[in-house]
Amino acid sequence: MAKYHDKKVSIEDEEKNSTANIFVFPNPINNFLLTVNVNIEKFCNLQMSLYDLNGKLLQEIFTGAVESGLFIRTIETGHLARGVYLLDVWVDGEFYAAEKIVVD
Known about the structure:
Elements: E1 20-25, E2 33-40, E3 44-52, E4 57-66, E5 69-76, E6 83-91, E7 94-103
Antiparallel strand pairs: 1-2, 2-5, 3-4, 3-6, 6-7
């Protein structure tokens, strides 16, 4: 059974707190690898997930506690078809940001 996003979230949603700053590159992706940098300001529980535009969960990227500092995660994207995806980031159980990811 497929897992779907259960909350309405759009890429226009503003960041709700200042616990983390996010940078994804390259975007658009053309080399099968995406790097996500999250600058964590304080200890928190971080969750990152990749969804298609229908809200279907494609990949749980990370779930866990992180210390303050730079958190880096490289994601293989070779299995993704060309198109647009959403990278959702949750901090301490609350929605933080959605980044639009384009696969060329």
